[in-house]
Amino acid sequence: KAGMELSGSLDATLQLGGTLSSPTLDGPLLGRDLRFVERRNGIRLEQGQLQARLAGQQLLIDSLRFGKQGELTGSGRIDLFQATPDVLLLLDFKRFAALERPGRRLLLSGRSRVEVKQRVVTLSGNLAVDEGRIDIPKLGGPRLSDDVVVLGREVVDDAGNRWPLALDLRIVLGDQLRFGGNGLEAWLGGEVRLLAEQGGTL
Q1: What are the residues whose beta carbons fall under 8 Å from the beta carbon of 197, sequence distance 6 or more?
Q2: What are 10-54's pLDDT values in tens digits?
Q3: What is the C-alpha to C-alpha distance for residues 87 and 41, in angstroms, rounded to an integer?
Q4: Radius of gyration of the chain (CA)
Q5: Residue 104: CB partners within 8 Å, gap ≥ 6?
Q6: What pLDDT score was predicted for residue 88?
Q7: Per-residue pLDDT tens for 59-74?
Q8: Segments of 23-86 assigned E as strands
Q9: Is 105 helix (H, G, I), strand (E, B) or coil?
């Protein structure tokens, strides 16, 4: 996909078992030099190392680490062979550059939990902003509201591809977060708690 890069190496020694209707996989899985870059939002996961194992119908992640700028470590599991696999990830951030692009930089520390179950994504945890800068883009011209339909223009409805999101996230802003743009320059501080039930409003 444009704006995305994915690279690295995976080594696995697997044993296939089970039946055609209920297959199983067993064996170790090692990843080296893993890299994922998504340029539009400034997400960079680099120098990744993975130690995992396949056990039946699960991928058990014993250790996952990215560490070019700060450190992100994690563990968890993914249930395989389902139309929508269940996922559980426990993540630790140590001055990790969660966002890195011109006008948008965010270094985080703390812990979070990501769970996907029955097409619902749940994100919770306690994070602190060690350092950051967020520049808002210049205000553009007027645009049509999403509920306005222009005759002759193709309408793309991706609502069916969206999974509901539930949030319980506490973020300490610290004293090194700068916010600017359109003539405004400010430092942000304090604490924010983001709460939302699945599919609800923030």
Answers
A1: 166
A2: 999 989 998 888 888 899 999 999 999 998 888 999 999 999 999
A3: 23
A4: 20
A5: 41, 42, 133, 134, 135
A6: 96
A7: 999 999 998 889 999 9
A8: 23-38, 43-56, 58-66, 71-79
A9: strand
